[in-house]
Amino acid sequence: xxxxxxxxxxxxxxxxxxxxxxxxxxxxxGVFTRRDPKSLHPVSGAEVYSVEELxxxxxxxxxxxxxxxxxTDLPRQTAEYVKLFNVVDSFDTHAKIPEHFxxxxxxxxxxxxxxxxxxxxxxxxxxxxxxxxxxVLPDGKDYTFWGRGVSQGHSDAVRRVSGxxxxxxxxxxxxxxxxxxxxxxxxxxxxxxxHLRECFVVLEEGADAARVEKEIKEMPDYFADYxxxxxxxxxEEMQKNHAGLPHGGFVLRSGSTGENKHLLxxxxxxxxxxxxxxxxxxxxxxxxARLSAEGKCGAMTAFDIPLKYLSAYDxxxxxxxxx
Amino acid sequence: xxxxxxxxxxxxxxxxxxxxxxxxxxxxxGVFTRRDPKSLHPVSGAEVYSVEELxxxxxxxxxxxxxxxxxTDLPRQTAEYVKLFNVVDSFDTHAKIPEHFxxxxxxxxxxxxxxxxxxxxxxxxxxxxxxxxxxVLPDGKDYTFWGRGVSQGHSDAVRRVSGxxxxxxxxxxxxxxxxxxxxxxxxxxxxxxxHLRECFVVLEEGADAARVEKEIKEMPDYFADYxxxxxxxxxEEMQKNHAGLPHGGFVLRSGSTGENKHLLxxxxxxxxxxxxxxxxxxxxxxxxARLSAEGKCGAMTAFDIPLKYLSAYDxxxxxxxxx
Lengths: 323, 323
Prior knowledge:
seven-stranded parallel beta sheet; homodimer; 14 strands; globular
């Protein structure tokens, strides 16, 4: 049995917990938190420890799955914890991946551990699709669309607008743009042409809806470059219709071999983004444990790990049934 | 430059030739044939040699791409040629893959060469999708649909019916079945419910259309288990509308993490099956050359090879731009 630890117990941590408990070859050694361990009550009844106690678990946990945020937690945690454990994270700040990889790689090579980074679905599975598609169809163009799904970063940004009590932001791919790509047109698409942003907002009592809507739509980086719609709804409607965290998207590559055109597409439609991402992290935790058992060390991504390491099945089964 | 040889110069061989010539890091060392070398005139002007001369190229070609058929050529050739060269094939008799792998592995471990087998799109890319999808969404069900596309085996079977001058057979996924899978219904689908077979037939003069149609539709293995339609067309129409070899398909996995449902899908839409397959083989030939340069040997499949080996880009580029 592969012994898994979870560091950080938000939505993603709970997703990993569910995936580990569903896997026949893994067991949950414990959940580690910066909060008071007594304040957490994991669904599966797992033990909860303070991150202060992590050192005591060196040699007792095969892989730690890091479920903190990419903004401030993971840039510090992954390179730190890989000194003691094999680790897996879903670091998703695309622009900072080379830096994160280098820091984790240095620490992991020193400790002899495996540090698998950025293995959610984007980065992660979508990255793998982009690499595979570009390699087998070199003369072509990549398109990645996200959604329809809840962007937690954008939802948080809306919540920070004064007068907003609660908010949910959906990223929505522009159907006409996806259709043009599928049609082999290889269009040049601006940010605005690729995605719409749809906000559902519960106002504080007495807040000025027009002012809130204007502030959201003009927010730089988050909304100014997009066609954004804002719907004001009641708290009840928010609870009833927007409690979930669905997401998904498409990676498309349109290209040709001379005069013949080809279209490759990978798509995900997820009812729960954190549960699916947790399931991906669990599969890469299995890979990390195996690679470590083979004596490998250093930072790795979805590009470096043979697919067979992700599976609970052995090589003979895979050859006979999945190839 | 990676020096590539092509053994067998049919549609697939020409596809590999095109892909190798389009790649900046590969060059074509020659085409090898069992026919009279003087009878072949490769589009790219590549040199043509008899397979009898293969031994002379040991040490001068980095990877031989085997473009023969799975029925009789590859079961013999791959394990034989891996004694002298790194080789790549697209062996696609699913039921015999374990046996083929074992034979190639034994010979390759003895010679110290790399033998990459079964790396077209199915087996190959679709196999990779099935493995990846099953690993990240273990509680679910796989569906593979092929088409709409020309099946050369089925076209050949129709051509063997007496009275048939020429024929083209399209494998067509049943749209209603695909829709049910995409809808998360996880249906149990019979062979007949998954695919239709559509035949375009040019009759010999005086042949009995009704008898030909009956013989096609009742042919065991090929057609009896499917809803098959037969269209009789003129030679001109065959030339005009059915000269291409399009193909494609879908790998879907529908499943859940507890109460939340998820759908993963990988699809291909190919104007030319042999050109795209040739392009996939060229990417795996790059991987074979690199793995061999690292001292690896033995048989490998799409399950064993990290994706980064397929790409012409280096690790730093991939991390910064594709992850």
